[in-house]
Amino acid sequence: MAFSSENASYEDRRRWPRLNAYSPVKFRCINEDKFQCCITCDISEGGAGVLLDHPVPRGTCLYFQIKLHNCPRPAYGIARVVWTDRDNYSDKYRTGLEFLEISSTSRTDIASFVQTGITPPHPS
């Protein structure tokens, strides 16, 4: 998948390893009440890549819940959109989220999930 040069520089600055993973996500903009659903493309302790049905402006803050494979509780918190690009292979928008506020339990769950390196199967 191709990314703009702006995204490539962001990719180079990552502090945590990422795992390609297709995990269900519920999210809503901070100033909205309605949740929407999407899936992750990848995840790390510091953020996640998600596939959205529509573009969300850079800087938008979202409340999120991510259901990690084999974890009994969702990881949740607040994230900020750091970039959005049209996906080359679908009608979706690949979007980079930076976790701003996340509980230590959720961060630990995500770190353990990434460390296992086991990618759950892609949903059909």
Descriptive account of the structure:
This protein is an alpha+beta fold. 17% of the residues lie in helices and 40% in strands. The protein contains two helices and seven strands. The chain has helices at residues 5-12, 104-116, and strands at residues 19-20, 24-29, 36-43, 47-52, 61-66, 75-86, 93-102. It has a six-stranded antiparallel barrel.
Keywords:
7 strands; six-stranded antiparallel β-barrel; Thrombin, subunit H; disordered N terminus; alpha+beta; 124 residues
How many DSSP E strands? 7
Helix percentage: 10-25%
The domain count comes to 1
CATH architecture: Beta Barrel
Question: Helices and strands: which structural class?
Answer: alpha+beta
What about the largest sheet? 6 strands, antiparallel, barrel
Order of helices and strands: HEEEEEEEH
User: What is the arithmetic mean of pLDDT?
Assistant: 86
Q: Determine the N-to-C terminus distance.
A: 20 Å
Q: What proportion strand?
A: 35-45%
What is the overall shape? globular
User: Poorly predicted ranges (pLDDT <50, ≥5 residues)?
Assistant: 1-11
CATH class: Mainly Beta
CATH superfamily: predicted glycosyltransferase like domains
CATH topology: Thrombin, subunit H
State the strand order across the main sheet: 2-3-4-7-6-5
* Computed CA radius of gyration, to the nearest angstrom: 13 Å
Number of helices: 2
